[in-house]
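User: Please fill in residues for this 597-position structure.
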């Protein structure tokens, strides 16, 4: 009997059925990202995942209420002067637009909840569309579907599109994914698109700066190696970035700030590099006929690069040390280096925070797989894998020292995982493939699915000290609406509270706050660190300096003591008293609240 008699070939109808099943799996996985409890909690109680989401809603609310487009000061933060935000109005605008549209229909409270709940799924749909069509063009329809399935299992992606996640990282993820796919496609129109998306990413926030730099290096390196064939993409990228960045900067920045240096946001230092990139592309295009060899082109871009970097160092020396030039050692050591997004992988492991296993190893495997495929893979796919590898390796290196380095690049993991999963299925169906090859591809494919890493993370968690987890749970309880919202019943005044509580108080009450987790507010951060972590004299001094009316403490997560037991911590535990503070019964067992007499 012929072999085909026992195993008949798949008919088009059967292939279609498999295709539909895969779509159903993708749809089910996507829907499972939004549990009913999370969506309802966001709509009815404004439960958002992070302090940045709370602050973003406050900014969008103020814009919808009539605060000026170019007025980026949060006036209820560190009064009376307020704190100028480094965040983008391009993110505030659609949220404010939704609030204006929905408020007449549902009232302000529900309008804010609906906006916070459904904006992230809408953006997930955009991300999924960009990913699907980009992967399908290069790797085929099944690989594209598998990339979507991998995206729904990639924690670095799903956390950025969760209900209530209205911060800007999801938009940056879309921009950098689109930039990468444009570079893979090549040509002038795609180059212009890549440059424009790079400009958009910078206008939203500088977290995508390493990816933008890698995109620029790719088009430059491609031109150096291939010459005139790669020139259209190089020139297009320069045009898109060099023209797009100043336009977006001017669209969201008041004219009085056009010459102000801001190391943490799109401003003259970064416009210098963007404009220099455009000038470099135009210069190389003009000299292309005279630069017939790789060494000549390399020498040309090396000279231009030295001029750009030297000019940056000479004109904007403050930015050479990073985006936080005005931060004091006290704030850096006692706050900045304690937050998770600034922690290294080693610190996560030392703390017993094994959830890092569902993020970092997947990124490392994606970088390794992309690098190998770019070097030894199918010629038609090498460019795509090369772009992915170039974007992933810097994120991997930065992410080892600062966890936030993996945020944006995690969106590229499905770009690699989808084709690898497709290849593993093809290999499994290939009777001529060796067992070793099948097993290797299967292991790689499983390793690129971050939910598979939950098993070792959970096992490792069984052996960890539960104190850090209890403290984190306590902090979330202190930020919950049930704990913070009762403060709204008090006469509006200035609140000194733990740093992480600031955005929740701004979102859920009419009060002003002294401190919130933002690096521009050094005075407020100092007040919270010294006042809540120091002696009674330190606390009284900071309360007087900032006109504080209410003191709030979170006993579950006390401030780090500066020297000996902190007075505010002892006060919250009932181990100390102060006649100049009147206890208020509004916080229940979660928060402790006092009025300053």
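Assistant: Residues filled in for all 597 positions:
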């Amino acid at each position: 009997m012929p072999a085909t008699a026992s195993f008949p070939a798949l008919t088009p109808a059967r292939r279609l059925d498999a295709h539909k099943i895969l779509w159903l799996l993708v749809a089910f996985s996507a829907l499972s990202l939004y549990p009913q409890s999370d969506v309802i909690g966001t709509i009815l109680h404004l439960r958002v995942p992070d302090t940045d989401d709370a602050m973003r809603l406050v900014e969008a609310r103020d814009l919808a209420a009539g605060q000026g487009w170019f007025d980026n000061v949060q006036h209820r933060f560190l009064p009376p002067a307020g704190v100028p935000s480094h965040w983008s109005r391009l993110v505030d605008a659609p949220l404010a637009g939704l609030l204006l549209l929905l408020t007449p229909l549902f009232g302000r409270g529900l309008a804010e909840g609906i906006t916070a709940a459904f904006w992230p799924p809408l953006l997930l749909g955009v991300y999924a569309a960009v990913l699907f069509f980009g992967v399908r063009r290069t790797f085929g329809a099944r690989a594209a579907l598998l990339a979507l399935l991998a995206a729904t299992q990639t924690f670095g992606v799903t956390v950025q599109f969760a209900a209530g996640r209205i911060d800007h990282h999801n938009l940056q993820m879309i921009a950098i994914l689109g930039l990468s796919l444009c570079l893979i496609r090549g040509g002038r129109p795609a180059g212009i698109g890549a440059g424009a998306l790079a400009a958009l990413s910078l206008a939203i926030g500088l977290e995508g700066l390493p990816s933008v730099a890698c995109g620029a290096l790719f088009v430059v390196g491609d031109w150096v190696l291939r010459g005139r064939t790669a020139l259209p993409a190089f020139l297009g990228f320069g045009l898109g970035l060099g023209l797009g960045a100043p336009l977006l900067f001017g669209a969201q920045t008041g004219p009085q700030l056009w010459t102000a240096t801001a190391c943490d946001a799109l401003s003259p230092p970064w416009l210098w590099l963007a404009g220099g990139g455009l000038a470099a592309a135009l210069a190389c295009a003009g000299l292309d006929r005279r630069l017939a060899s790789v060494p000549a082109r390399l020498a040309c871009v090396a000279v231009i690069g030295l001029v750009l970097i030297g000019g940056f160092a000479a004109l904007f020396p403050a930015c050479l040390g990073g985006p936080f030039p005005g931060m004091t050692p006290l704030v850096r050591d006692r706050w900045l280096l304690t937050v998770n997004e600034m922690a290294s992988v080693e610190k996560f492991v030392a703390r017993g925070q094994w959830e890092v296993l569902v993020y970092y190893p997947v990124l490392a495997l994606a970088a390794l797989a992309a690098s190998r495929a770019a070097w030894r893979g199918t010629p038609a796919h090498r460019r795509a894998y090369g772009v992915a590898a170039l974007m992933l390796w810097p994120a991997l290196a930065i992410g080892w020292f600062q966890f936030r380095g993996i945020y944006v690049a995690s969106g590229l993991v499905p770009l690699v995982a989808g084709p690898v999963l497709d290849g593993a299925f093809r290999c499994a169906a290939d009777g001529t493939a060796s067992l070793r090859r099948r097993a290797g591809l299967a292991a790689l494919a499983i390793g690129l699915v971050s939910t598979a890493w939950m098993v070792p993370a959970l096992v490792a968690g069984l052996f960890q000290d539960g104190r850090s987890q209890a403290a984190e749970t306590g902090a979330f309880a202190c930020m919950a609406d049930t704990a913070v919202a009762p403060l709204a019943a008090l006469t509006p005044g200035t609140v000194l509270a733990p740093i992480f509580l600031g955005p929740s108080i701004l979102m859920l009450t009419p009060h002003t706050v002294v401190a919130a987790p933002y690096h521009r507010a050094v005075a407020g951060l100092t007040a919270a660190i010294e006042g809540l972590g120091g002696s009674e004299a330190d606390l009284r001094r900071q309360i007087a300096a900032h006109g504080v009316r209410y003191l709030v403490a979170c006993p579950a997560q006390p401030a780090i003591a500066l020297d000996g037991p902190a007075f505010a911590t002892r006060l919250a535990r009932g181990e100390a008293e102060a006649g100049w503070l009147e206890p208020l019964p509004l916080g229940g067992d979660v928060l402790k609240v006092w009025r300053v007499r």
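For context: Residues 1-8 have pLDDT under 50 and may be disordered.
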